[in-house]
Amino acid sequence: MSAITLRExxxxxxxxxxxxxxxxxxxxDGEFFALLGPSGCGKTTLLRTIAGLELASAGSVRIxxxxxxxxxxxxxxxxxxxxxxxxxxxMTVRDNIAYPLRIKKVGRAARHDKAAGTAEELGLSALxxxxxxxxxxxxxxxVALARAMACxxxxxxxxxxxxxxxxxxxxEARTFLKRLQRELGVTTVFVTHDQAEALAxxxxxxxxxxxxxxxxxxxxxxxxxxxxxxxxxxxxxTPMNLVPARVHGDELAxxxxxxxxxxDVRGRLTDGEQVVYGVRPEYLDHSPEPVPDAxxxxxxxxxxxxxxxxxxxxxxxxxDGATSVQVVVxxxxxxxxxxxxxxxxxxxxxxxxxxxxxxxxAAAPPVPAPRTGVAAxx
Amino acid sequence: MxxxxxxxxxTDLAARAAVRxxxxxxxxxxxxxxxxxxxxxxxxxxxxxxxxxxxxIGTSLPRFxxxxxxxxxxxxxxxxxxxxxxxxxxxxxVLVVVFAALAAYALSRVRVPGxxxxxxxxxxxxxxxxxxxxxxxxxxxxxxxxxxDSRLGVILVLTGGLLPAAIFILKDFMDATPTSYxxxxxxxxxxxxxxxxxxxxxxxxPGLATVGVWAVANxxxxxxxxxxxxxxPDKAPAAVIMYTLYTEGGQADLxxxxxxxxxxxxxxxxxxxxxSSRYGFRFHGGxxx
Lengths: 378, 289
Prior knowledge:
The complex is a heterodimer. By secondary structure, chain A is an alpha+beta fold. Chain A has 2 domains: 4-231, Rossmann fold (3-Layer(aba) Sandwich), CATH 3.40.50.300; 238-358, CATH 2.40.50.140. Chain A has helices at residues 43-51, 93-103, 108-121, 137-150, 167-184, 195-201, 219-224, 229-234; strands at 4-12, 18-27, 32-36, 58-63, 66-67, 78-81, 155-159, 187-192, 204-209, 212-217, 241-248, 251-254, 257-260, 274-279, 284-287, 295-304, 308-316, 322-330, 340-345, 351-354, 357-358. In chain A, helix 2 (93-103) runs parallel beside helix 4 and helix 3 (108-121) packs across helix 4. In chain A, the strands form 4 sheets. Chain A has a 6-stranded mixed β-sheet, sandwiched between helices. By secondary structure, chain B is mainly α. Chain B folds into 2 domains: 2-65, no CATH class; 75-279, MetI-like fold (Orthogonal Bundle). Chain B contains 12 helices and no strands. The radius of gyration of chain B is 27 Å and the shape is flat. The relative contact order of chain B is 0.13. Classes of the chains: A alpha+beta, B mainly alpha.
């Protein structure tokens, strides 16, 4: 058992900055968990508090069935891979990987055997006698992972694991990391500011802002149903379209047109209420011809993104001028700037936010339960 | 006709330029040679005078002899003083390196209010501590602490004088070492001392070597402090004994003086060569790299 349980976790720095604010979180055994948020949201502090490099000002941390809130990092049975990998420059790869075992007073021969074994698993056998300075970024990362694996911790903590790699290597490392985590089945928490990385790697994601968790869920949940406008704007390679709207019975007045209220929130809105209508650019269909139940506006910008284009339309927004709506258009069907376009939201993919929070229906998905037994389905 | 003239004038001009260029080069080299001679002659004297049976203060081809060394060995304090110097320099260097490393590490890692002011203040004052200005209070202090005529006293005073600059130099090395190294080791369960031994010391080794060599060189050449605090010639280091090498007539005994100077300068020169080849240290100084 090596689930991580955080209760009311608070961290206030001596300069008064409240980096973590009464935070509750459960990370299941074997889960690959992402802490995602903009810089300064407290995600790294949270990771360091789990590691024990920062002591919590209040609240508790449990790893498995042990309370570790006040234990020093060395006694928590965790391994951390730092953003800069923190490989010791004066030691060979072999000595680096064997270092945790040296601390545990394992004999030289035994720990070198272990290091060689771990290095082989990660394809580092040929590099054992090199020094970190002679390795590429990707190799350094694998050595850092090997060093973390060598001591068989209950939990892996990874701080921005991919940010020090160049773009091409990053994709490779991402696949590698996900496969490795599946194979090892060890609870892994990683920090990232890159939503694409979090979506691609994690079993579940916690989106953080200002020391609080704004949403916890699987990548699908977080992507399809952001719990608030902050998450909606943060997740996705293109942010969600958020358009002011007013409720009129069973319809919403959005950008000068009337659209039906999404089914799952029907009856949960008050007539005349001011809300925000949200739909992802990926869930909008563009049409050059007029179609019913569509937003309409003038095409302003067309950005070619390879197999598809991101089209921005200016649509009228109530009383105060225009607002921009973005839509993803497949290749070959791009409109020209200046054209008039119609965009239709796909049914079941539109969301309504009241005061920044998602309005959910009675039949809305339940609070996501932590996923367990990840290793088993690998 | 006029074209010929112009051509001639041109060659003439080119020739003149070449001559001027040559003269400038000759002038530059002559100047460099003079500068070089200014620095090289004393060294040359050091190389020749000890082997001359009648050395003067000028440099000349020696009439080769080793008698000077024999005479020097007859001086009861000559060799002992070199051993004394080794003790003083070694002891001071060890203390300076150990304490400066610990202090620099702490100052680099722990947020102390007014840290930089403290550091610069110490650095400023340190040159006064072992200087002539504090001769009297220093003696007074050593006297009260019963450290007169004790090597420990000299070592402590010199250590005090060198520490601030050493801390200043080493703090830069410590600052340049990412904290993630130490944090990484901490997560693996390493204790503070293990982190220091396994990670910090090896990583800043060039800095430690720099400071060690610098401390030895400083103590080796220090005359005032041991002269002040050590009473008899039996504990005096070479820098002080050098001062006693006079003939009975009160004249400087150039034969002994030159021979002793050679022996005196060799250890430090050898140490530089050794440390430089071993650690490849450069003098980084208190400058951000």
